[in-house]
Every structure is written in structure tokens, then in C-alpha cells.
């Protein structure tokens, strides 16, 4: 009869090895995407840099677009833990804040802090979407996820009673979604050289002026 303790140990070891391989693949892919772009990065090269077999890469990620999305998710979250952004501590802190302007300020402080790492990955997906259907679907997924997040944020702001009269939830959502777009960071920071802190303050002031009394 096989030893159940040994089976559990072997399973645990395989799971930890799979997690380690995933971390190495994501680290390798992140570096290659930033250095060579989406089209210039090949899955065998990712495998080589990660020190794993190319089959291991495809087992973890169905294709290059899926890998790009995973790089984006990890970069946005700051780790590879199975905790959605909505469940993160900084979101809980924003939800607990009673003042709408402060909520917006807290969120934009966070966005400005992560944008230098996150936005280039978004722009890779956007630019790859023109030539790669799988990348196009990943880009659409990124946009949908942002729209969903801004829908929840708009509802949170409306609940404070500090939103301008006449603005519906969809109006507030669309303002948030527009200013949240990577195009704002691309124009102001990448093209015009603004520091992220100035970019965050600009968005904060613009959103407050647009939606709050």
C-alpha cells in the first residue's frame, strides 16, 4: 500500500516546483517584453531565459498573449498571489475613506506609483493588438477589467453624496475610465517627460473637478 504522507509530500513538491517555474517564466517574459517588444519576444527565448523547457512555458501559458496578460496582472498586483485587486488592502482603505476627494487622491497616488511599471505592458498589448488576434483579445480584456473596476469606484463615490447633481453612475464611471487609460501616462510622462507624481496630481485634480461638487 502506498504511503499517503509520501503522496502528499510529492504533490506539494510538484506544486511548489510549478509555482517556481511560473515565477521564473514571468520574470523572464517581463524582461524580454520590455527589451524586445511583443513581436520580438519568442516563447523559446522566454523558456531559455527562465531555465525551463519550452513545453513548460506552454503548459503554464497557452500562448504569448496569455503570457503578456499574466505579466500585466503580476506587475499590477506586485506579486503572483491569488488575491484579486478588489481584495487588496489599498482598495479596502479607499472604500473606508468617507471623503470622495480623498478617495480619488488615494487611488491616483496608487496609480501614479504603479504606472511606470504597469503602463508599458498595457501599451505593448495595445500596439500588438493590430497584428495579433490573441493580443487584441488580451487588450480588450484589459479594457473590460478597467471598466469594471471603474464601475465599482463610481458607485463608491456616489455613495458619499459628494458627486455633482445630475451625474449618473455611468457618467462618473466613464470619466474615471477615460482618465485611467494608459494614453494619459503615454502622453504626459513618456512623451512630455512629466514625473509620475505630477501625472497623478493632474489626474486627481481633473477628476475631482469633473465629478465632485
Automatic annotation (TrEMBL):
InterPro entries: Homeodomain-like_sf, HTH-type_TetR-like_transc_reg, HTH_TetR. Residues 19-79 form the HTH tetR-type domain. Gene3D superfamilies: Tetracycline Repressor, domain 2. One of its GO terms (molecular function) is DNA-binding transcription factor activity. Residues 1-20 are annotated as: Disordered. It holds the Pfam family TetR_N. Keywords: DNA-binding. This is HTH tetR-type domain-containing protein. Residues 42-61 bind DNA.
Amino acid at each position: 500500500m502506498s504511503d499517503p504522507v509520501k503522496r502528499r509530500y510529492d504533490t506539494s513538491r510538484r506544486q511548489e516546483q510549478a509555482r517556481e517555474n511560473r515565477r521564473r517564466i514571468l520574470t523572464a517574459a517581463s524582461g524580454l517584453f520590455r527589451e524586445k517588444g511583443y513581436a520580438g519576444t519568442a516563447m523559446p527565448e522566454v523558456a531559455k531565459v527562465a531555465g525551463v523547457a519550452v513545453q513548460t512555458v506552454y503548459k503554464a501559458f497557452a500562448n504569448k498573449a496569455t503570457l503578456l496578460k499574466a505579466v500585466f496582472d503580476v506587475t499590477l498586483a506586485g506579486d503572483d498571489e491569488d488575491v484579486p485587486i478588489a481584495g487588496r488592502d489599498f482598495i479596502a482603505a479607499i472604500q473606508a475613506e468617507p471623503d470622495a476627494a480623498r478617495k480619488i487622491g488615494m487611488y491616483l497616488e496608487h496609480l501614479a506609483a504603479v504606472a511606470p511599471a504597469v503602463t508599458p505592458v498595457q501599451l505593448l498589448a495595445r500596439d500588438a493588438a493590430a497584428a495579433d488576434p490573441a493580443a487584441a483579445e488580451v487588450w480588450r480584456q484589459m479594457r473590460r477589467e478597467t471598466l469594471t473596476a471603474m464601475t465599482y469606484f463610481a458607485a463608491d463615490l456616489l455613495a458619499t453624496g459628494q458627486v455633482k447633481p445630475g451625474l449618473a453612475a455611468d457618467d462618473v464611471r466613464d470619466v474615471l475610465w477615460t482618465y485611467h487609460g494608459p494614453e494619459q501616462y503615454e502622453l504626459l510622462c513618456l512623451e512630455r517627460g512629466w514625473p509620475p507624481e505630477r501625472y497623478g496630481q493632474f489626474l486627481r485634480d481633473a477628476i475631482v473637478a469633473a465629478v465632485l461638487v
